[in-house]
From TrEMBL:
Necessary cofactors: [3Fe-4S] cluster
Keyword Electron transport: yes
Domain 4Fe-4S ferredoxin-type: 1-29
Region described as Disordered: spans on this chain: 59-83
Family annotation (Pfam families): Fer4_15 (PF13459)
This protein's UniProt keywords: 3Fe-4S, Electron transport, Iron, Iron-sulfur, Metal-binding, Transport
Purpose: Ferredoxins are iron-sulfur proteins that transfer electrons in a wide variety of metabolic reactions.
Keyword Iron-sulfur (UniProt): yes
Name the UniProt record assigns to this protein: Ferredoxin
């Protein structure tokens, strides 16, 4: 899994740091998200995915995770094809 952040979209709520402090931090200058580990281990996967879903501005995205999604593809469920 790869984590990406868009600091321009970040509102500085700090939720990400409370969910996954080993992956996220906040800038002392502007309070916006800082990405400590763009490739976190599987132990942080659940917290990182939860945070990406709960980020109030959508500034955090998760790509790939080894369960059928390629490394550059978003992890959102796909619609079945051929229906």
């Amino acid at each position: 899994m790869e984590v990406r952040v868009d600091r321009d979209r970040c509102a500085g709520s700090g939720l990400c740091v409370s969910y996954a402090p080993e992956v996220f931090d906040q800038s002392e200058d502007d309070g916006k998200v800082l990405l400590k580990k763009p490739l976190p281990g599987t132990g942080a996967a659940g917290a990182v995915r939860a945070m990406a879903a709960r980020c109030p501005t959508g500034a955090i995205t998760v790509h790939g995770h080894g369960h059928g999604h390629g490394p550059g593809e978003p992890s959102a469920p796909r619609e079945p094809s051929g229906l």
